[in-house]
Amino acid sequence: MAFRFSPSYWRIVLGLCCMFTLVHTALSTPPEDPVRCVSGNTDCSVTNSYGVFPDRSTCRAANVAYPTTEAELVSIVAAATKARRKMRVTTRYSHSIPKLACTDGTDGLFISTKFLNHTVQADAGAMTLTVESGVTLRQLITEAAKVGLALPYAPYWWGLTVGGMLGTGAHGSSLWGKGSAVHDYVTEIKIVSPGSVNDGFAKVRVLSESTTPVEFNAAKVSLGVLGVISQVTFGLQPMFKRSLKYVMKNDLDFDDQVLTLGEKHEFADFVWLPSQGKVVYRMDDRVAVNTPGNGLYDFLPFRSQPSAALAIIRSSEEKQEIFRDATGKCAEATLISSTLFSTSYGLTNNGIAFTGYPVIGSQNRMMTSGSCLDSLQDGLTTACAWDSRIKGEFYHQTCFSIPLTQVKSFITDIKSLVKIDQKSLCGLELYNGILMRYVTASPAYLGKDTEAIDFDLTYYRAKDPLTPRLYEDFIEEIEQIALFKYNALPHWGKNRNVAFDGVIKKYKNAPAFLRVKESYDPDGLFSSEWTDQILGIKGNATIVKDGCALEGLCICSEDAHCAPTKGYMCRPGKVYKEARVCTRVGDINA
């Protein structure tokens, strides 16, 4: 497939060149605290790491508390419970896209785990590690490595906290062992919840599979509605190494390969580039700890990047949207994906240079990254690419898991859309394509219920919520095919509102979870309007108003939900006729 290079092509080349000069640079401006207060710790607001929630609302609270010990945490929860104040937990970087950090009204309390970031106990003999809930994934794997232990599976971004991972069901990619979900390697959870007068208004519970299996399986993916997780104990494995190589192929037999690769390679995943007709296979296996190799995975898009280059790239994409320059998007997507592949995505054989595959390194050096967080203040000259203080990446993220038995059919549906217009999904490829990871069934009540593939789609979001996107109907149709045709489960920490409408009905163990919730917090002090909506307690996750479908707040049922004055009308899907999407009428997506 040949694409004409648009004028913005050369701006992207410049931006990429600047980005890759920072291959070994640690200087950057770290993200600011997601909680901001007008005065001290009072009159506060919270946002996510991207600066905007899906509905663009502002979440406020009267105060924020920063406990540094479990005793302080218990005291804070007790005082708020006694005063019958609403509470929600916030984390160091607040990476959940939906409004999980929000409390109701303006009189509530944010409880930040920013300073609950200590290792409690490492037991090499028992192969366990106990940490506080504010410990980041990076800290967790580093502390484990010090005693020769490894967490076998984890998300690829190390800026998540232990409590945040348990709150949303974060995972890596594997069908092996207990699967790739972090919470399935937890052996004990200590949680602080509202208590009675006799409890001193706060109750501390220690949960485990052997002693409290029902409550334990509720707490492993909790959405923060059971209280504040204080400490977590992980059951770990002896340190091992991984041998990784990437292979790019055409996607002709991709739908068949997906069904078997996860059985052949323990840490397999895929990056699918559907408009290019290509897929990148991650062939990633466990090898003995004494295998030669000191590889390091420092994923390029997670490194510090020059703010000026990020602004150029964002401006280029905005212009492509304004002028409907699909050809330019496709050219730049091809450039970006080929550059990332040719630079091995940031893999090095010795922490300095890439000399060839396979790259072999210890689990703690290969499993996750995020070096833009490991940085000094430089006045925002450089930053994480999505830092809301600069003109950088601003996007939607749609993420869902589809049962492995139905993945082939789903891939066929996406290929059918691409056949209608080959340029339609280049916008996904600008954000490194569709990431596909393996997940397995979990005993957690709000965890995955079967072997599945998790599809992660990242794509352009306009600063103006009423501005339609180029080819937005194609991505909306994919979203609806997944959610409704295949009954996909959305990732609790990602997605737009439409993914969560009626979602709790998809979980067979939801009644058991809600019974534990009622027992732990009968007054709903740790619940919010958002959690009530997604748990099916009260209200709906969708918001119906003019333009609501443009940002995934609703599924359109009339033209006003799209952008009729800009030519976008509510129409049936192209492949999945039951879908209702915002389509540009007239010279459709030309």
TrEMBL record:
GO terms for cellular component: membrane. It catalyses: L-gulono-1,4-lactone + O2 = L-ascorbate + H2O2 + H(+). Keywords: Ascorbate biosynthesis, FAD, Flavoprotein, Oxidoreductase, Signal. Gene3D superfamilies: 3.30.465.10, 3.30.70.2520. InterPro entries: ALO_C, FAD-bd_PCMH, FAD-bd_PCMH-like_sf, FAD-bd_PCMH_sub2, FAD-linked_Oxidoreductases_BP, GULLO2-like_C, GULO_Plant, Oxid_FAD_bind_N. PROSITE patterns: FAD_PCMH. Pathway: Cofactor biosynthesis; L-ascorbate biosynthesis. GO terms for biological process: L-ascorbic acid biosynthetic process. It holds the Pfam family GULLO2-like_3rd. GO terms for molecular function: D-arabinono-1,4-lactone oxidase activity; FAD binding; L-gulonolactone oxidase activity. This is L-gulonolactone oxidase. Its EC number is 1.1.3.8. Residues 1-28 form the signal peptide. It comes from Brassica cretica (Mustard).
